[in-house]
Amino acid sequence: xxxxxxxxxxxxxxxxxxxxxxxxxxxxxxxxxxxxxxxxxxxxxxxxxxxxxxxxxxxxxxxxxxxxxxxxxxxxxxxxxxxxxxxxxxxxxxxxxxxxxxxxxxxxxxxxxxxxxxxxxxxxxxxxxxxxxxxxxxxxxxxxxxxxxxxxxxxxxxxxxxxxxxxxxxxxxxxxxxxxxxxxxxxxxxxxxxxxxxxxxxxxxxxxxxxxxxxxxxxxxxxxxxxxxxxxxxxxxxxxxxxxxxxxxxxxxxxxxxxxxxxxxxxxxxxxxxxxxxxxxxxxxxxxxxxxxxxxxxxxxxxxxxxxxxxxxxxx
Length: 316
What we know:
By secondary structure, this protein is an alpha+beta fold.
């Protein structure tokens, strides 16, 4: 679908689907949106507009990294929005100049829909840079609920972790959450770098007062980046603590088993000797030999237990 907002010489707003009208002499400014275009509509992007072929090629090769490219007649933006359900990136391409803004996206974009609807009322009062900022602002606003929801889920897992640190299912959820944070960061971090380029750019015609709005977006992305990194560190700590806790418990079990094995080794040795049943073993005919042997084994076991306790082998 192609939709256009045109402003003529009389500042009249014209809504049309005929992208060819953007080239009429009486049109001062326009905003054209290529929303999930068909192959025939994609061809119009090439035929109607004189955009750089590399920028057009980037539109057709999904998914490009967020970036800003400067060309003679326009600037080209690649933006990434986040799908709240799948956490996959949705690419939005913008061709911007003083006279026009052309957006191209092969997936539905709530951000473009909102800004386009606003422009149907007062496009004549907004510069192209304002529209670019609004689209970026809507995209960044869409990041916050996703990051906050992930953070809330992590805090809930932290409470469960304190009471059930050895729960294998809990650790699986933490690893899943870590993977989600990684997918989010793959979108947010490049967008942060893009906003830094926009803020520091000397080639974009952005008034210093309006540049402050882009700087505010950059600050928001810095905050999101810090939140994501902090949450990833938390999941790393959970993972390391889980491994350490399991190792500690395994060592405690092995320590207990070793103590019992050590105690029973001499007892087993004694029982083994008197279990051989040789005919000329004098102890076998002793009247109280059985009880003496049991007593000796009991004293030996008790002595070893006291020795281990004195040397704090039973301490955690």
